[in-house]
Amino acid sequence: MDERTTLRQKALWWIAGAAVLIYALFPVAWIVSLSFKSAADLGNRQFLPADAVLDNYEMILVGDAQTLFLSALRNSIGIAVIATFLAVLLSTFCAYAIARLEFPGKKVILTTALAVAIFPVISIVTPLFNLWRHIGLYDTWPGVIIPYLSLTLPISIWTLSAFFRQIPWELEQAAQVDGATTWQAFRRVIVPLATPGVFTTAIISFFIAWNDFVYGISLTSTEAARPVPAALAFFTGASQFEDPAGAIAAAAVIVTIPVVVLVLLFQRRIVSGLTQGAVKG
Amino acid sequence: MAAITMRNVVKQYGDGFPAVNDINLDIADGEFVILVGPSGCGKSTLLRMIVGLEDITSGDLFIGDTRVNEKAPRDRNLAMVFQNYALYPHLTVFENIAFPLRLQKLDDAEIERRVHGAAELLELVEHLGRKPANLSGGQRQRVAMGRAIVRQAQAFLFDEPLSNLDAKLRGQMRTEIARLQKRLGITTVYVTHDQVEAMTLGDRVAVLRKGILQQVASPRELYREPVNLFVAGFIGSPPMNFIPAVVSAGELNTPFGAMRLPDSRSPELDGKDIVLLGARPESFDDAAIVSDAVRDHGVTFEANIDVIEWLGNEQYAYVPYEAPDDIRDQLADLERELDSEALRTQLVVGLDTASQIAENSTASLWLDLRQVHVFDPVSGFNMTARDVNVDESAGATAV
Ligand SMILES: Nc1ncnc2c1ncn2[C@@H]1O[C@H](COP(=O)(O)OP(=O)(O)OP(=O)(O)O)[C@@H](O)[C@H]1O
Ligand SMILES: [Mg+2]
C-alpha cells in the first residue's frame, strides 16, 4: 500500500518535472536551433536547421556586427559585475544590521526597499534620461550602474536579511567561549555560514543586471555603455530587407553562456540547509 | 581548575527586569554544583554571566583569586555546553571538537591525539567525519560535551545538556557526566530541570527562584531540611504535601484531626493562627502495617482514599480534602510557580506495597510526626528546619 503510493507519486513527480522542463527549455532549444540556421533557412518552418552553419556566429564575432556585439558584451559584463559587487557589498552591511541590531527605522528601511522594488521602471526612466543628460551621466557606465542598483539592492537586502536571520548567531558566543576573539568568531563561524547567502544574492542581482533592457536602451546611445540586451535591437540583417533573427539568436546564445557558467560555478556554494544541525530542535 | 565565587551578583536586563538578584555563592575547586529552579528563574542568565556572555550589572565574580567581571569570555578559560548545543554546522565532528584547540594553535599531532581521546571517551570515534546535521540528538549532545572536555578549562558549565534526550539516553549520559567529572576533578556548574539529575549528580544543589537564591545544600539536606515552602515543594517527586492547620492550645487542628507534634518538631507557634504542615508522601503509611515500635511516634487518622497508583516498587494513594479558601489559593499559587498542576487540595500518600487498601474506600492512615515540617504560611519559612539562621550563613549561602 505504502510502496504503491510512493511509486505513483514518483511517477507523477517525473511527469510534472518533465512537463515543466520541456515548457521552460523549448524556447531555448528553438533559439539555439535558430542560431545555426542560414539566412535562407530562417523561414523554413522546421525546428531543425536544414543545414547547420556558423554564419550567424561569424557575423557577430568577426563579421559586420562585430563592433556592435563585442563592445556590448564588454559593457554588459563590466556593468553587471560592478553593479552586482556594489549591491552585494552594500546589502551585506545593511542586512547584517537589520538581522543583528535593534535600531529605530529598521522597518522603514525594509519597506522603503520594497517600495523601490515595486516602483515601475518605465515611469522613472524618462526623468532619469533628462537628469542624466544634464549632469553628464548619459551613455556612461555609472549612468547605467546607478539605476541597476535600484533594481538589485532591494532584492539583495531582502534575501540577505532573511538569510542572515536564520544564522544561529549564538554560535558566535559559543566560539568566544571556545577561546575566539570577536574577529575570529566572525571569520571562522559566521562568514562560512553567511557565504552561501551572499553568493545566492550575488547571482540573483547579476541576473537582474545582466537581463535588464529598459534602462539599457534608454540611458545609452553609443557603444560606450550600451549593454547586450539593448544592442540586440540594433542588429540588422546583411541587407536592410534581411531578417536579423539569426544573428540575434546567436547573440542570445552567447550571452546565455556566462549565466550558465556562473550557475554551474557557484552551485556548490549555494548549499541549502547549511545551518542545519547547529542547535537542537 | 579553580573555585568560582559570586558576591552580590545582580543582573538587570535592558528592560530593568532583575533576572538574577543579589546572588552569593562559593563553589569550591573541583566541586560539582547543581543549579535548579523553575523555568525563567535565571539559571541560564547566571551561567552566562559566569562564562562572560552577559554583563554583570553589579557585584563581583571571581574565578580562582582573580576578579573577572570585565574579562572577555576567552580570557576566562571556561568550557560551556549550551542549552541548545551550539555546534558549528559547517564543520565535521572532528573539527567541532578540535575548534578550541585550533584557536590555541596547538600542533596537529597534539590536536589529533586529544580529539581522539575525547571521541573515544564519548563513543564518537566512528562519527568524527560527519557533519552535525546528520547526527542524532544524543550524538550532538556528546559532540558538545567533547568540545568542552578537550581543552584544559578551569571549569565546566552545563546548561541543561540532557533536556532533549530520551529517558534511557539521559540516564546513560548522566552517569557518564558524573564519571567524567570525578575523573577529571574539574569544578562544574550544572543547570537542570530534572529532579533525578539534581539529586544524584552534584555535591551541592542551589535552588533559584525568580533570580533569588533560596538554599544551597547537599541533596540530602535539601530534601530533609528545606528552608522554605518553595524548596520543600520543588525538591522531591511526588512533591511534599502541605496541610493547613489551625493552631490552638499547643495542638494543630488539621482536616485529618488534631495533631500534637513531638518536642523535636515543635517550633515557637506564639502569635500564629494558621500554619502549613509539610509531610512527604513516604512519611505516611497504611496504619494496619505500621510496626508497633514506631506507631507512637505518629498519628493515626481515617481518610477517604480516592485513587491508588501501584508502581511495583511503591504505591501512592490520593486523598482529596477540603481546605479554607485562602489557604487553597496560596497552595495553588505555589503549585503554579513550581510548574505542577494539582487541581485540587489532596494528599499524596506513599504506602507500603504490602498494603491492601482499596480505591474508593475509607482507610486508616498513619503519619510519622517526627518527619513533619511546619511552615509559616505568610513568609513561607520552615519553622522546624534545624536552625534556619545557622543554615543561612553556613557555607556562605545567603537566602
Ligand atoms: N535578553 C534578555 N532580555 C530581557 N530579559 C531576558 C533576556 N534573557 C532572559 N531574560 C529574562 O530573564 C529571566 C531569566 O531567564 P533565563 O534564561 O536565565 O531563565 P532560565 O532559568 O534559564 O529558564 P529555562 O529553564 O526556561 O531555560 C526570564 O524571566 C527572562 O524573561
Ligand atoms: Mg535556561
From TrEMBL, chain B:
All copies of domain ABC transporter, residue ranges: 4-235
Keywords: ATP-binding, Cell membrane, Membrane, Nucleotide-binding, Translocase, Transport
One Gene Ontology term of the molecular function aspect: ATP hydrolysis activity
Gene Ontology biological-process annotations: carbohydrate transport
UniProt entry tagged with the keyword Cell membrane: yes
Pfam families associated with the record: ABC_tran, OB_MalK
Annotated Gene Ontology cellular component terms: ATP-binding cassette (ABC) transporter complex, substrate-binding subunit-containing
Coiled-coil regions, chain positions: none
InterPro entries cross-referenced by the UniProt entry: AAA+_ATPase, ABC_transporter-like_ATP-bd, ABC_transporter-like_CS, ABC_transpr_MalK-like, ABC_transpr_MalK/UgpC-like, Mo/tungstate-bd_C_term_dom, OB_MalK-like, P-loop_NTPase
Superkingdom to which the source organism belongs: Bacteria
NCBIfam families referenced in this protein's UniProt entry, alphabetically: PRK11650.1 (NF008653)
Protein name in the entry: ABC transporter
